[in-house]
Sequence to fold (164 residues):
Amino acid sequence: MATFMDVHSGMTGITEEQLKEAHAADLAIEGDEGVHFEHAWMDPKSGKVFCLSTGPDREAVMRVHERAGHPTSEVYEVPIEV
Amino acid sequence: MATFMDVHSGMTGITEEQLKEAHAADLAIEGDEGVHFEHAWMDPKSGKVFCLSTGPDREAVMRVHERAGHPTSEVYEVPIEV
Fold:
């Protein structure tokens, strides 16, 4: 199991409610891929969303986000943390 | 007090020890700016580092990173999280 940070861009103006809905959409299907989305942080001004997850590989994280309707190719494996 | 996620790029090949040193350099001076760096995640392959912090504003976060020797202009205020 590895840890990932992924980045979504261009989600300018997204509300807290919409972020919760997007996160819930991930949670609803993440089990299919052995992924778990732990946390998400959002800057509505710039439209950036950062998601922290665990899972088997980058591709699995990408598949969950894509199926949930908010694809991103910017998924980084982050094996080192402090 | 606000929450921030910042992104460093181009730190390819950085080791866990170097990340710890960089984080310690932030912690040593962050109090001057009322900032606290909570956590950092690193992808040594792509050279991306993500730092989660709290502080008064973006500029304070940028000043700490700059004085600690690893400046970035990519600092996002993340008022919404799930």
User: Anything to note?
Assistant: The domain at 2-77 of chain A is CATH 3.30.70.3090 (Alpha-Beta Plaits).
